[in-house]
């Protein structure tokens, strides 16, 4: 396997995980995935550079001794320390920032993005980037630039308020560049986007190989998120331009990209990733940790497990349940999972929807559960209603527990399920309700599907193969003498559900 673009491979067995809004400061599928990697490789040393919200988030995972350091990089807390540049340095930074913005707004200037980004990275390391972006000069540069003749954004009549908003969002998004970049080993970004920034700086400055595992497709998640974001088009043009060109640069410079499914791979190739730098790696669970769930509940029950978040589209699930209950008045819907800070309004909206439809007595938000297996066992059928996923942990865990599933056809869901569950279009309550009613009305079919689902996990998606695969990748990237990794016949790890809403950059 080539390690292109100037990466220097060393014999070190140190891995720096680059995370955003996940491990080790929160729970969820991505964090479980990180913990599995770390716990499964006690022979390697791990560090974590974690992009967080305020920097005050506690570490919620028990870290083993071979995790030797965790650095929190707050996106929305106090800004990085430093002072504004002066004189020649200020003029040089202003010129680099103008090239950076021009690349975001003018398709003819996109080749200037990478050199401008690394110039900004050097300023961030010197402590001058954030103070500069919080000053008037940065706002003035954007105001002058996007009013130039010939730029499409000019037609939207950008305002001073737009410029202030876009500049502030970029200042926050670029804060991870101020984190000390890894100087040896392998930098493993466990999502795209801003988490990759320290890894790109490490590659540029120290030749540290960059491994990229996207949980879902980060850029697609940003497009979805900005559809309803409360910003005018000029602001969206700047920020989405940044995420698009950052994705392209990440794909271009990564030594290896390990998407969780073929769907992700198509997005990455379209975004500029070379096919030879991509290996699809499916997710794994331990079947012994998720044994067959046992007897089903006596009352017809649909269960769901995950993070209460708009990307999980619980509103469609609740609307589908209303259609199910019209046919089965005794049916229940049990929703297991926590509500992240800032997501309370979405949960309240879902609760209000259930009440509006007349089903608040049958829809219960159970909160976090001590043992996730209990969430799967609680239902006759396990539901997944997301509008975007990678290769969802909750789905293969439920399959390992021998439960029949109804899932939306997003990301790697169809690859995971095969013919052991029903797959329906996203945002389609009627189709989801129809599939749920099919399974609730046919115990024999549910049982056969559940047995087949568990067998599929045992044959294709086991944790042991996951750990072995990534250990080989780490050692291969760190040691040029090892040569290419020989993958098993079925590669066995995928990124879990995109916890795209775990992104802190919006």
UniProtKB/TrEMBL annotation:
Domain spans labelled DUF3492: 14-276
Organism of origin: Streptomyces levis
Descriptive protein name: D-inositol 3-phosphate glycosyltransferase
UniProt superkingdom: Bacteria
Coiled-coil zones: none
PANTHER family: BLL3647 PROTEIN, GLYCOSYLTRANSFERASE
